[in-house]
Amino acid sequence: MYKALKETTHHALVAAVIASFVFIAEQQHLLGWLDAISIRMSQAINLDNHQVNSADIPDDTPVVLHITDTMYENVFFQKAPLDRSKLAILIDEITKKKPAAIAIDLDLSPGADEFFLPSIAQIELDRSLKKATRGCSPKEKCITLVTPQIVQSEEVRAQQYHWMKSRCIDGIEFSFPTLVMHQAVAISYPSSLPNLGNVVPRAGAGRNTKEGLCGYISAHNHSQFFSYQNLATAGRGIKTRQLNTSFFHYLKDPSSKLELNLDTIDDVANLELKNKVVFLGGSYGKGDTFLTVTGAFSGVSLHAAGYFSKIHSITNTTHAAAFFLDIIIGILLGFIFVFSWELYGRSKSSYLKISSIVNYLKMRSLLIINLFLMLFILIAFYLVSGYLLEAQLWLNPGPLVIGMFIHGLLTSKHTTHVEHECGHGYIKGLIRHHPDLIWQIPLITFVLFSFFHH
Q: At what angle do helices 319-353 and 357-390 cross, to 10 degrees?
């Protein structure tokens, strides 16, 4: 009984230390790369056989309109920035369909050569944007644009700012176009930023629940605004939430008609967009394509996914629940790995005593079995994690499994026999055989107190 209690305490302590390091690393946004790798593995193990039932798609799911390569070549003649007069016509056609809101992931500001003398085409585009706001509900901005691409010229920046301020007066809202990537994989959206997906009002929800950038623009000058943008979108302090992967499955289903390609402006006439939140962007070229857990999507699709994920958010486990779940799993893994490594140790001792072919093969077979055991447990956990991910719950088992595997190896090599004591003697024995408690206990205590602040 004492031995089982001692081993359980030991495994729980190691699991708690591993979970504490993982918690601290997550708070410092240092494990995004590991989440990306883990999700890739989970998705690779769970083959993509999703069947989408159109009846299950929420009514507030946004529609994504893509300016395709065909449209870019045949309508805009591969010129950048896109022809403003044709964009004006395109926006007019979308507005006629009476969508609930329009989010545009395109830089619609004047070109650098037009800021001081806007072209007729730019004036037409600005008028179309203002006209589109007439269908908005009172006190709600249903047209949302992204901020212009930042330039180095201070004079042009001032004109960019003046253009944004004028659009804000027209009833248009602005947002950042920031996307968050981990190891080149989009697994989350920036929940703390006035980003495109966060600012767009929810269909039928009335007034905006989150302010965009127009309030800041009206109260500051251009230098202050662009300094704020650089600081806010720097990446270090951005809070994120996981993208709801269901949205990508909805997009990939042709029957859902949520992701629509525009080859010509006339294609809009055949679309049903009434009371829908519409995201318009470009999918031409390869520079605006990003990898997600369910395949490659354009930037505007990621913004739409952020909008959907804000409404249908992932249910994350609390830090405390995940921490104690890690400890329980860690105890079980500790017993499994220590037992497997002890078997290997015994076979190695037998080989050292009698160096026969049979003992050698037995020793090496157990070593291979141990490695495959860790791989099997990892795959099993990732298989479960994949299903949890589809249920909007994500747990990353990698650090704990690998950590307990190494712990099992070290423990089996340094097993010491101690007297069977209880009470005060048990505590003294625990401290004597765990000299690292001097820093492990403060670490775990710090993490436990941190749960009250998250």
A: 170
Q: Find all residues with CB under 8 Å of 47, minimum gap 6, and list them.
A: none
**C-alpha span between 251 and 245 (Å, rounded):** 10
The three-state secondary structure class of 449 is helix
Residue with tokens 């127009």: 214
| 288 close to 282: Cβ distance less than 8 angstroms | yes
Copy the structure tokens of residue 104: 């545009």
Burial zone of 340 (CB within 10 Å; 0-12 exposed, 13-18 middle, 19+ buried): buried
Residues comprising the chain, all counted: 454
> pTM (2 decimals)?
0.71
Give the pLDDT confidence of 218-254 residue by residue, as tens digits: 999 989 998 999 888 876 668 888 888 889 888 888 8
- DSSP letter (8 states) at residue 393: -
As beta bridge partners, residue 107 has none
Distance CA 281, CA 271 (A): 16
Residue 454 identity: H
Residues 413-428: pLDDT tens digits? 544 444 444 555 555 6
Question: For residues 175 and 213, is the Cβ–Cβ distance under 8 A?
Answer: yes
Place of tokens 């006629």: 96
Q: How far apart are CA 376 and CA 336, in angstroms?
A: 13
- DSSP state, 11? H
Structure tokens at 239: 């809070």
